[in-house]
């Protein structure tokens, strides 16, 4: 996993979930949002996404403009973007949504917010990574536990999330979240809680599982608003925390720190970012053309090269950083029952925020 240090930015999260950071949207998820939704002209496509950080939104806007599209990016964390799409279903503002993972898009689909559309590039992707009807896969991602490798070696660093609150050397040295509105944060907890599944337990989780959550919050250093985790690592305030693989190399360069990642024996959650057409858009043909353009091998290949992502489009993978391709080839995916997660995530979040996030 040390090879992540040489990536300019790898890619992250769980085939059905995706999650991120503290009280603020994670760098890989929301970045700088555009102006108020609907602020564009009648010809402007409004695009909701949780994947516009790290310059992605600006890059997509610029490239789309060159291709003849006038788009307005509206960024929000994964859970927040999902709730926004559902809340607006009777009067949709967005024309297209991308970046959300399967779990989020399945929620949106269940609320009849999406319109079926088969992109021109549908035959170039593994349709088992999506529903093959309303939302389609773009990029693979993974949520990782990263730590300062100048302070900890592969042997002395944390091997799994549970090490953070069960081993004294890591207590108070990791950043813990202060909000669960992002996909990354939810993914981290999905990966932890599903290890303690107990159908007779509270919300399907054993008492021991909820004890792990309690210990996570009691022993961690709360995320600081508007302060990047890597800045805190660089200052020595903390040594570790959750991070999408896609941000690691760029953050290492920007904050002059070196990071390695834990390799839990159970594997890591893996996520697939998707794209979909919003039902009720008044710019349907334009939105479909945008989806065809953005998910194409050419554009996804350029995107992969620029942001070191792992594209799902087979034709784009040749342009991806070879180390990113190797990383995902070697990565062990955690076996998670995402139907179980989807059924319970809302209640888990509510319980965590009310009982543990103090």
TrEMBL record:
Recorded GO MF terms: thiamine binding; thiamine pyrophosphate binding
Gene Ontology BP terms: thiamine transport
Ligase found in the keyword field: no
UniProt cross-references to Gene3D superfamilies, sorted A to Z: Periplasmic binding protein-like II
Record Pfam families: SBP_bac_8
Listed GO CC annotations: outer membrane-bounded periplasmic space
InterPro entries, alphabetized: SBP
Any coiled-coil regions, as ranges: none
Protein source organism: Pseudarthrobacter enclensis
Name of the featured protein: ABC transporter substrate-binding protein
Keywords: Signal
UniProt signal peptide: 1-18
């Amino acid at each position: 996993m040390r090879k992540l240090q040489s990536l300019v930015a790898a890619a992250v999260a769980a085939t059905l979930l995706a999650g991120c950071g503290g009280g603020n949207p994670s760098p890989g998820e929301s970045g700088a949002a555009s102006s108020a939704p609907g602020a564009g002209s009648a010809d402007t496509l409004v695009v909701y996404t949780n994947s516009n950080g790290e310059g992605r939104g600006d890059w997509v806007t610029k490239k789309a403009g060159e291709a003849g599209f006038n788009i307005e990016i509206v960024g929000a964390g994964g859970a927040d973007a999902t709730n926004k799409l559902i809340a607006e279903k009777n009067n949709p503002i967005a024309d297209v949504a991308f970046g959300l993972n399967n779990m989020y898009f399945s929620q949106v689909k269940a609320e009849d917010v999406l319109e079926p559309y088969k992109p021109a590039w549908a035959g170039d992707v593994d349709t088992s990574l999506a529903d093959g009807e309303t939302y389609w896969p773009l990029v693979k991602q993974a949520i990782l536990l990263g730590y300062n490798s100048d302070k900890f070696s592969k042997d002395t660093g944390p091997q799994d999330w549970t090490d953070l609150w069960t081993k004294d050397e890591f207590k108070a040295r990791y950043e813990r979240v202060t909000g669960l509105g992002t996909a990354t944060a939810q993914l981290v907890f999905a990966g932890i809680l599903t290890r303690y599944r107990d159908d007779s337990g509270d919300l399907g989780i054993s008492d021991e599982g909820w004890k792990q959550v309690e210990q996570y919050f009691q022993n961690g250093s709360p995320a600081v608003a508007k302060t990047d985790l890597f800045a805190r690592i660089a200052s020595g305030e903390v040594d570790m925390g959750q991070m999408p693989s896609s941000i690691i190399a760029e953050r290492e360069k920007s904050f002059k720190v070196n990071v390695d990642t834990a390799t839990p024996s159970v594997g890591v959650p893996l996520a697939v970012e998707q794209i979909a057409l919003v039902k009720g858009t008044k710019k349907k043909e334009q939105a479909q053309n945008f989806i065809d353009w953005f998910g194409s091998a050419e554009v996804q290949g350029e995107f992969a090269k620029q942001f070191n992502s792992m594209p799902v489009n087979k034709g784009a993978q040749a342009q991806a950083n070879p180390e990113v391709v190797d990383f995902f080839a070697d990565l062990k995916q955690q076996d998670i029952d995402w139907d179980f997660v989807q059924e319970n995530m809302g209640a888990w979040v509510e319980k965590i925020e009310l009982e543990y996030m103090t």
